[in-house]
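Collaborator request, handled under Task 6.
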Amino acid sequence: MKTNLLDLSLNDLGHWFEARGVRSYRAGQVFKWMYRKQTDAFCAMSDLSKEVRELLDASFSVNRLELVTTVKSRDGSIRYLFQLSDGHTIESVLMPETDHSTVCISTQVGCAQGCAFCLTGAGGFVRNLTAGEIISQVRDIQRDAGDMPRLSNIVFMGMGEPLANYEAVVQSIGILTDASHGLGFSSRKVTLSTVGLVPKMLQLGQDVVVNLAVSLNAADNETRNRLMPINRVFPLERLMAACKEYALPNRRRITFEYILMEGINDGVSDAFRLVRLLHGIRAKVNLIPFNEHEGSSFRRPSEDAILKFQSILMEKGLTAIIRNSRGQDIGAACGQLRADRNLGLDRRGTSGQGSAEPGSVV
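Structure tokens returned to the collaborator:
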């Protein structure tokens, strides 16, 4: 079986060429064809010799994900269901704005984190995606976008915990942001969301430059333990210490995602705890009112409670933005994705929680 060339880094392919007596710079030419020109066939790579093209064709293929179906939201968002080569499925979401579009991509089939408010992890963890499967979501949707506003933003907020699939995610970010040979996205327009895997967070800051978003959702350990099992491993004290240590580029801030749930974490005392928790961190807060759905015991707070929570944060000097998730009517917000083959059905009120939207990635 041929290897998917999208799974290889530029250096990997360069070394492969050198081992066969071909100059390593040919790897850059191949990458430009795959990523800049969206070419899948080696025979079309006209600046390579026939011998090199035949050599590639004997060992590699350039694979597309199998598009099972799409469904479009009332707000213009498009939810994609892709099938992988082993039959498993993942989902991605394209979210258009006036002058640009954002794509929300997955990094795992399922999720092992078990957050209480999230449907993605309800079915458990199946496997990690390869770097090629991660990149393909962007590459394929970019080709499919047609008349949509230019795709400029990427959020790693789909199915799975990105830092639990660290090597593949970092490799994919390298190719997505490579302006010479990859897809050429600006690192300022790439955001990775994590539940807070502290050692990998710190490593990420050293290995690549991206925007970091931390799924926080509570300002005390007792509440966060109930909502997010990861907090029992990396409690808030360790998480906040890592955020202060994180290698944050100049003029950037860490985004803290805070899903507001009535009677759980939406009170005045919760807001003041959050202010104290984030003291000393270059931070902004995305407040995400919970989207009620059948089977969940969580409830959306009143508008007065949401606005009061926001006003306390802002009065204390924090940037706090209320985010209403995109694609809610089709279950396309982060935390809602679960590789459902019935995408064409009316999903209103049947799915969970999310925060992926273009406004959070600037």
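The cover message to the collaborator said: "Residues 344-362 have pLDDT under 50 and may be disordered. The chain has ten helices and 14 strands. Please let us know whether this matches your experimental observations."
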